Amino acid sequence: MPVTTVDCIEALLPQTQCTRCGYDGCRPYAQALVDDARVPINRCPPGGAATIGALAGLLGREVLPLDPACGSDADAGVAWIDEAACIGCARCLPACPVDAIIGARRYLHTVFERACTGCELCIVSCPVDCIVMQPRAAGDPAPAPAENRSRYEAHRARVQRGALERSVLLAERKRFASTPDVARSR
Predict the structure, then answer these.
(1) Residue 155 has what pLDDT?
(2) In angstroms, rounded to a whole number, what is the distance separating the alpha carbons of residues 112 and 100?
(3) Helix and strand tally (H, E) in the chain?
(4) Residues 93 and 105: beta-carbon distance below 8 Å
(5) Within this chain, do residues 83 and 168 fall inside the same structural domain, yes or no?
(6) 133 - beta bridge partners?
(7) What is the domain range of residue 145?
(8) Domain with 122 in it: what CATH number?
(9) 110-111 vs 101-102, strand pairing mode
(10) Together in a domain, 32 and 81
(11) What pLDDT, on a 0 to 100 scale, did the predictor assign at position 26?
(12) Does 123 fall in a domain?
């Protein structure tokens, strides 16, 4: 498969999938940069100045400072869940774009820190505010973009499978509900 400009741009992005740029993930932002020259190259806080410089070089645009409306380029750290406050609602699980939160409904959740990209998307999903960002442990680097992308793609595939399974089940239930009672009683 030939490498496209979108692929090259996406490879420069840190793959945190944080949506701070205003797009649903790194790939949609890369696509927008290719589709519309008016889309600013300075909207990726996790990538910071290095990513902005690389995007400017690739796209032949002027280097700009990071757009402060998108956030800071300081490392957000990792999510941490207060065990005493967690109610097991599981709202944080689908919010995490890389499945770094481990748990199930009605059970305590925890964060797999080595996979956490620091996107902060889990924070707003928590109804009891038990998730906060903490600095990464010394010597524990942020996950590599390739690892982030792989985990994100696995998350998206799992969500898509679940949606397909739900739609098949719903169609089957509708079909069953529309059949006459006589046919069902046989």
Answers:
(1) 93
(2) 5
(3) 7, 4
(4) no
(5) yes
(6) 79
(7) 75-173
(8) 3.30.70.20
(9) antiparallel
(10) no
(11) 95
(12) yes
In this predicted structure, what is the pLDDT of residue 42?
97
Q: What is the pLDDT of residue 183?
A: 55
Please give the average pLDDT of every successive group of 10 residues along the chain, which has 186 residues: 90 94 96 96 95 96 96 90 94 95 91 93 96 90 88 93 93 87 58
Neighbour tally for 41: CB within 10 Å: 25
Given this model, what pLDDT does residue 143 score? Answer: 85
Residue with tokens 């490879």: 11
Q: Are 129 and 43 within one domain?
A: no
- pTM, rounded to two decimals: 0.80
Pure H helices in 126-186: 145-178, 181-185
| Boundary (domain end) residue, out of 70, 87, 104 | 70
Q: Give dist(CA 16, CA 120) in Å, integer.
A: 10
Q: Which CATH number does the domain housing residue 17 bear?
A: 1.10.15
* Two tokens, residue 159: 């969500």
User: Rounded CA gap, 97 and 25, in Å?
Assistant: 9
Looking at residue 140, its pLDDT comes to 81
Is residue 103 within 8 A of residue 90, CB to CB? The reply is: yes
Q: What's the number of domains the chain is made of?
A: 2
